[in-house]
Amino acid sequence: MTRKVAAILLTLALIGLLAPVAFAEEAATPAAGTSDAKYNYYAMAVIGCGIGIGIAALGTGIGQGLGLGRACEGVARNPGASGQIMTTLIVGLAMIESLCIYALVVVLIVLFANPFGV
Question: 82-112 vs 36-77: helix axis angle to the nearest 10?
């Protein structure tokens, strides 16, 4: 079963990576006063930001899922301690979520920074 899931995920990743090649068209000439460096910067910034926030969200989701699963196991084993477990869980989830928010802030700074002054 895991090989089948891995094969499906690999196929989807390859389709996603090859889609720009399939839909590529001839490059338009840039307008007067613009440079290719500007477009390259913004293209790389968008790609990097997408990858960065995707990895941050993936890590945050995994961390929150593991934390919530362990909290549910703890409450199932000792229902009397559910209040303490819930408090610790909420604080832990807030700390994990703050990491993704920090990644979002960095991504927005990189995306909307204007190094060319235009």
Answer: 180
- Read off the tokens for 34: 């613009």
Residue ranges, the chain, pLDDT below 70: 1, 21-22, 24-35, 115-118
Distance, in Å, from the CA atom of 45 to the CA atom of 27, rounded to the nearest integer, reads 19
Contacts by residues 100-109 (CB-CB < 8 Å, ≥ 24 positions apart): 100/56, 100/57, 100/59, 100/60, 103/52, 103/53, 103/56, 104/53, 104/56, 106/52, 107/49, 107/52, 107/53
Distance CA 82, CA 99 (A): 26
Q: What string of H, E and C letters represents the secondary structure of 48-105?
A: HHHHHHHHHHHHHHHHHHHHHHHHHHHHHHCHHHHHHHHHHHHHHHHHHHHHHHHHHH
> pLDDT tens, 78-106?
999 989 999 999 999 999 999 889 989 98
